[in-house]
Amino acid sequence: MLSKAICSTSIPGMTPKRGKVRDIYDFGDTLFLVSTDRLSAFDFVLPTGIPDKGKILNQTAEFWFDRLEVPNHFITSDVDKMPFPEGTDREQFRGRSTLCKKAKIVPIECVVRGYLAGSGWKEYQKSQTVCGVSLPAGLRQCEKLPEPIFTPSTKAEEGHDENISFDKMVDLVGKEISETLRDRALDIFTRGSDYAAKRGIIIADTKFEFGVLDGNIVLADEVLTPDSSRFWPSASYEPGRDQDSFDKQFVRNWLLASDWDRKSVPPALPEDIVEKTREKYIEAFKKLTGRVFVP
Predict the structure, then answer these.
(1) Rounded to 5°, angle at Cα 108 from 27 and 157
(2) Which pLDDT score, from 0 to 100, does residue 162 have?
(3) Which CATH fold would you assign to the domain 105-246?
(4) 60-100 pLDDT per residue, tens
């Protein structure tokens, strides 16, 4: 039997903003982000959490913030150094939380795709494009693209994000910041993918969030985790088919094979699916960081 998933947290006298998978507390001049064990798929939060998922994602993001050496919002993940109100149970946050600088988030999901998968593959089959970006003919499912492409989308509080063109992004946030975000996202993706490839992981695509802090662009939220990215084991990679994965695609596949209509409340996940999904997250963490995950 797995340990209980932590799907919500509490701080005396404070009400968090609850996202799909995070609890966010406003500490005034800083934000306190908590990665819970909630799991979302098809724009629904599932009724079953994945034990330790939040810890794995938080520690993976911290690893990348340190390794990538790009301006970011990270302050500390040490709960003993955080300014909690008296009476707060710090243990619920240990290993799964980040104190960060409060940046003004740019309302754009900065998506970078290195392989032809998911919705991109479906669009390519119809129009030989991905999010309006023209691609060469004859590419196969999950094939590596000639070079990574930047495909921004709007950020939706609820429901689906909307893919937009780069020109539309310029209309929304301006030319200078659009070019900066595009170049920054492509650089981070390329460097992160090159590193992951040496560890046996293909990062097929990912999304980044950026904010403005003291007039500078900073990387925010999470970075190159199995929740924000599509991770494939390179050992079994073969274009022309769906790939094995280290991310929540394992859960998506189970949901697609169920009789769930994707409109109503999702079904609870069986314990074996929960355990296998947890194992996938842990394996990705170990491969990327070279560390043993300690719950």
Answers:
(1) 60
(2) 87
(3) D-amino Acid Aminotransferase; Chain A, domain 1 (3.30.470)
(4) 999 999 999 999 999 999 999 999 999 999 999 999 999 99
pTM comes to 0.93
Place 250 in a pLDDT band, splitting at 50, 70 and 90: confident
Among the CATH numbers 3.30.1490.20, 3.40.630.30, 1.10.1760.20, 3.30.200.20, which is that of 17-102? 3.30.200.20
